[in-house]
């Protein structure tokens, strides 16, 4: 009998605690022998890890579209890509590559009754890189693109600043902004290696290492005409500094707030009075952005993203951990800034 394996959630870090490797346990588990009508047997090839999963480690997620992980149960992530091993569903046959953006268990083999989120992989779009289904051609890419177009109101003369700029969304949003004609794209990240990647590889105009450089001074140097659009992935004091240098009638794209994901605060988290006054006085929009609110724009947006990708106008960086056994450590590393681009888990080959 074929062996199977999964990752189980075994303890909560607490609402103010950092995730640790001991919160996860890698186990052997039963191989699913039988499938029922309309079900498929899936072999997981890649798993997505996402900062937003941190809320699922708490007893309450604080959001209404996803629930908390339960102690002792197999972890359910947002996305995965796999191969159909057996099918009793008329829509899928053995050998199909499939992906989903939510509800994928951290398990090598599992049985699933496909829903509308479960889709076949169009190999012509991914250019041989099936992991792209979980990075640029996924909710990650859509979040970056639609965040800019729906909330950023990008114009060719604009200066765009991105925090968490070397992460999954940030690295794509900067390139999308440049392709949309932004005059300057400035990234904020946490290492010299990441800064070099942004400027030398992705074409950012400039990059700021928030750990070693003065954010206020560097923003003034890189953004002499002020800031028109801010793609906010981190929140906290970094965002306070950016907002202080934003122009009148500018826009904050509230994508993520990773700096406070380990804290017991509501989402979006409260901001200092001084920052709130700055937003009001300069008529700066700052609204929560959730890509799931724009399903009618997915197909058109993915078409544009795929066109840029296949023509070589976009570069995709992925940090890949090998083996399901390293899923927990990879998640912990990502939450500490250990990744460049999308953090993925390579579970198996087709």
Automatic annotation (TrEMBL):
Residue ranges occupied by any Alcohol dehydrogenase-like C-terminal domain in the UniProt entry: 170-301
Catalytic activity: 13,14-dihydro-15-oxo-prostaglandin F1alpha + NADP(+) = 15-oxoprostaglandin F1alpha + NADPH + H(+); 13,14-dihydro-15-oxo-prostaglandin E1 + NADP(+) = 15-oxoprostaglandin E1 + NADPH + H(+); 13,14-dihydro-15-oxo-PGF2alpha + NADP(+) = 15-oxoprostaglandin F2alpha + NADPH + H(+)
Keyword annotations of the record: Oxidoreductase
Signal peptide: none
InterPro entries: ADH-like_C, ADH_N_2, GroES-like_sf, MDR_fam, NAD(P)-bd_dom_sf
GO process annotations (BP): prostaglandin metabolic process
Catalytic EC class: oxidoreductase
EC number in record: 1.3.1.48
GO MF annotations, alphabetized: 15-oxoprostaglandin 13-reductase [NAD(P)+] activity
Domain Oxidoreductase N-terminal: 15-115
Pfam entry (one): ADH_N_2
The keyword Membrane is assigned to this record: no
Recorded family membership: Belongs to the NADP-dependent oxidoreductase L4BD family.
Name of the protein in its database record: 15-oxoprostaglandin 13-reductase
Lineage: Eukaryota, Metazoa, Spiralia, Lophotrochozoa, Mollusca
């Amino acid at each position: 009998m074929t062996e199977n394996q999964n990752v189980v959630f075994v303890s909560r870090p607490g609402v103010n605690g950092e995730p640790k490797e001991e919160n996860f346990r890698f186990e052997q588990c039963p191989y699913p022998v039988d499938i029922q009508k309309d079900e498929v047997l899936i072999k997981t090839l890649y798993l997505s890890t996402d900062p937003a999963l941190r809320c699922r480690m708490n007893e309450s997620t604080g959001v209404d579209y996803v629930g908390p992980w339960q102690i002792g149960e197999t972890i359910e992530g947002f996305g995965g890509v796999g191969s159909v091993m057996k099918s009793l569903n008329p829509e899928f046959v053995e050998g199909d590559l499939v992906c989903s953006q939510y509800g994928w268990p951290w398990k090598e083999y599992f049985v699933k009754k496909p829903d509308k989120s479960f889709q076949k992989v169009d190999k012509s779009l991914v250019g041989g890189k099936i992991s792209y289904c979980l990075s640029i051609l996924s909710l990650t890419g859509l979040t970056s693109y639609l965040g800019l177009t729906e909330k950023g109101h990008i114009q060719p003369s604009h200066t765009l600043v991105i925090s968490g700029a070397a992460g999954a969304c940030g690295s794509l949003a900067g390139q999308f902004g440049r392709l949309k004609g932004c005059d300057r794209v400035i990234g904020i990240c946490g290492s010299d290696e990441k800064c070099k990647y942004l400027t030398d590889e992705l074409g950012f105009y400039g990059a700021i290492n928030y750990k070693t450089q003065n954010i206020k001074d560097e923003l003034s140097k890189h953004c002499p005409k002020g800031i028109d659009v801010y793609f906010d992935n981190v929140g906290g004091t970094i965002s306070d500094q950016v907002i202080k240098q934003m122009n009148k009638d500018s826009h904050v794209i509230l994508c993520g707030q990773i700096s406070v994901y380990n804290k017991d605060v509501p989402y979006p988290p409260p901001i200092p009075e001084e920052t709130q006054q700055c937003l009001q006085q300069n008529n700066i929009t700052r609204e929560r952005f959730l890509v799931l609110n724009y399903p009618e724009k997915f197909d058109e947006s993915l078409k544009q993203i795929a066109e840029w990708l296949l023509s070589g106008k976009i570069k995709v960086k992925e940090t890949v951990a090998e083996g399901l056994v390293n899923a927990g450590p990879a998640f912990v590393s990502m939450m500490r800034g250990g990744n460049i681009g999308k953090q993925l888990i390579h579970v198996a080959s087709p």
